[in-house]
Amino acid sequence: MLKDLIIFSTFVKLLLFPTYRSTDFEVHRNWLAITHSLPISKWYYEDRSEWTLDYPPFFAWFEWILSQFAPLADKEMLRVDNLNYTSDATIYFQRATVIISELVLFYALKKYLTTNNMKNKNLLNILAASIFLNPGILIGNDLMCGIMFAVLLNFKHIFLYLAPAYFVYLLRHYCFQETSIQGTKKFSLKHFFFLGVSVIIIFLLSFGPFIIMGQLGQVLSRLFPFKRGLCHAYWAPNFWALYSAMDRVLIVFAKRLGWTLNESAIGSITRGLVGDVNFALLPQVKANHTFILTLIFQMASLVKLWKRPSYKNFLVSLILNGYSSFLFGWHVHEKAILLVMIPFSLISADNIALFRSYMILAVSGLYSLFPLLFKLTESTIKIVICLLWFILTFMGILSNLNYKRNNIKKYSQSNESKLSYLIKIIENIYMYGFIILQFFTGIVHQIIYKDGKYPFLPLLSTSIYCAFGVIYSWIRLSVIYFLGKDDENQEVNS
Amino acid sequence: MSKSSETVDNNGFIISNNDQDPVVDSPAERWLNWLGQTNLGKCSTVITLLFGIYVRWNVGLNPYSGQNIPPMYGDYEAQRHWMELTLHVPMNRWYYYDLEWWGLDYPPLTAYVSWICGKIGSMFNPEWFALDVSRGFESEESKLFMRSSVLILEYLIYVPSVIVFVNWWLASKSWQKRRLAVLFILLQPALILIDHGHFQYNSVMLGLTVWSLNCFFYEYYVIGSVAFCLALGFKQMSLYFSPAIFAYLLGKCIKNKPQGFILFVKLGVTVIITFVIMFFPFLDSVEHISQVIIRMFPLNRGLYEDKVANFWCAINIIIKLREMFEIHVLTRISLFTTLLAILPSCINLGLNPDKHRLVYCLANSALAFFMFSFQVHEKSILLPALPITLLTLDEPFWSSWFNNVALFSMFPLLKKDRLILPYFVVWFMWNWMGSFVQRDVKPVVLRYISWASYLVMAVIHFFDFNIDPPKRYPDLYIVLNVTFSSGIHLFMLLYFNYRQITLPYNLDEKKDKRKAE
């Protein structure tokens, strides 16, 4: 069955060859060129292209390995000054590398299927989890988990968002061992040593060459470009999007009531480009503010993880960490929502409450990615794919949950309180609202504002609407997590 | 889901002499089983339809016929031009207007549909169809519009007809078998690549034909014949089917006396009225209607144009017929052989107008016309491909072999259109889904023959991509392709004739008697 899935997904991707190539294409072509044609000492200094190398060294090595095969397709793509080069052979080569590296992903998923006792329903999660590249989360062995995560961090430092959860879990679960006396844990120096040394070795392997050359500062400045501004170009649906929107609303009021404003700020955030953001009325937000906020919310979930470091709690706190970084982080890209969605999908089939939270997150998160595919030709594809994915994962999970529930106990209406019924209705209305949103941003907006007035309005409304969904699902999950009972048996039954 | 040889239906009647045991467990069957297990069976049709849209849309993103190739461009420009012309030129000049630049050469229904498309397209951007100045107009948006028009028309007409067909044809089988059939039929590579790649509206004609079949199954003969007349009115190519349809209806009339005679009159009147309505604007003078007919049937173009996988083109390698005979002699030779080829199957159908026999006869009639008729285009292979694809679950081995060869025979055309990648992807995907290449057949030697044929196809492709043809024979690979394909097509003609004649007789009557009990 899994083999079928792999073959089928390869066909699906092959069909997509003639579609729109985002700037990512040029980004990766550039990185192939840099790693192939330049010596290591120049990798993090090269800036002829605007897409400078801003991933950690392991990813650079990955590009280097790929670039060894590039001459088979088209040597010209490896010239560093060959900006925006797009020969057919180049396109085929890069698409092929994506497909092949995703085969690695499937290997990881296969591991998942064999280590946990999988029942049929979890196969549905394969589709949702198909972009996840972390084998660490899937392996029960703690030490390997830690090593894998360290490796992963050195590929894409976006996973730094999740690091605290890993750190706390590994520390608590691995480094503190059960003693013969019930309930107490003893700190194991040996395990701590193993973990610490393994992680340090990995980081040395990755950053070592650059430390020797004295380039560590440059590399770090490339990896963490704090100059880029609070909000990404397309406004990830996070807390700051709502914050900015609130600021805009208040500007209108302020003009009416004659309050003093920060005049320079009025034009800044709606440009849709990258740049520093200034707020007119609400307090300015700096990078350290976001950092502190993120940390505070992450701490909250980590406390519970520390108290009871079960695998289930680890997963949920991982998800919550991802949420906090996404919602409160600096210059968050919409793609980061995947970091939350994918681990969430692994537990979404466990019970109906988790499922509903996941559903809201998934729809909001996916929908917020739509503006990235703005060309009309691709919009049909994205709608079709999302519909297909939605039907398969949600209907499948839902029908299986109902099936299970009916088997276990008779579902009685009286069990459901009036409040939860109301909440359900509101959630459903919110979900259907997406259809209206799509209609509005896709067609109505173009008809009403034919002359191109308010060009930012569709993006703005998309961001805000999705932000509500993301924040709501975060709160919902937190409620489940913090108020849920610590039932060790749950892990066995899931 | 039982995988045993399905030669007997629930009522104990033999449906087919099909000894082909579907012991192969294909990915598509596994998929449907899984859907059934996870209680998603109800969604399977929607999923198939959505996936169908996905495949067609992606194929559509590739170049269309003549994209970016001035001065004449290709079939896409022809269709666009007809939308432009029907929009701006008065009706009585439609078949006269600038015949050198893609003059209208399909019957009026195509013109009316083009007019509707042109009207809708002009709402988005009138520049696409501005009279004369829009010749060779190419843009992202107009391509999107044109591609969408094909997709929407297909999903309005062809797709529902297939679903209704399958529901009747496989009514006594499991729901999985029906969904399976829909999946295989809707993902047939040839139609997708021509309609959504090369750019044509074949699915409208094919859909109308299937609707007429559906009507005949439910014994609505009058409506069915209207549907078929509409198909004829859309593309005159569907004449390939007409002997079979005619034989069936005639057989029905003769069988039930005296209601048969009334039916005969009713049908005659219906057909005449339908055609009069369709051609009405062009019936004002003999000269006008002759012009229309000449445009539809350009007999002076010769026995065949380009290379097509039929009998005449293959023979031409040895016997240069075009040099030996005058054109009117060739016309007669072709007419004679075509009649000879369709006679057995049509007489057989006329004497025994059974519903199952009808579908086989459609295949035989279309295949016979393809092999021996005048001015056949390689795209016409889509006509026999329709009934044969509808028979996919009844004849998995033969149907898939035919479709594979049919697609291969169109490769030179697709190569010219730069559709090589989607050609391979859709082709392999369809074959993988149905595990068609691994299908069993008795006698087993046929399986090896089919594998040999696939090997030949692979070799021709390999040589085509890697080694330049010798200077003396620049079309060597095309000729090889055509000769090989026409051989297989001839073989198929013989097989399907054989199958039609050996179908059980009086099946419909037994069914009706059973129902009455």
UniProtKB/TrEMBL annotation, chain B:
It is a multi-pass membrane protein. It is an enzyme of class 2 (transferase). Pathway: Protein modification; protein glycosylation. Keywords: Endoplasmic reticulum, Glycosyltransferase, Membrane, Transferase, Transmembrane, Transmembrane helix. Pfam families: Alg6_Alg8. Its EC number is 2.4.1.-. GO terms for cellular component: endoplasmic reticulum membrane. GO terms for molecular function: dolichyl pyrophosphate Man9GlcNAc2 alpha-1,3-glucosyltransferase activity. It is found in: Endoplasmic reticulum membrane. The chain crosses the membrane at residues 150-170, 182-201, 261-283, 329-351, 358-377, 421-438, 444-464, 476-498. The keyword Endoplasmic reticulum applies. Belongs to the ALG6/ALG8 glucosyltransferase family. This is Alpha-1,3-glucosyltransferase. The lineage of its organism: Eukaryota, Fungi, Fungi incertae sedis, Mucoromycota, Glomeromycotina.
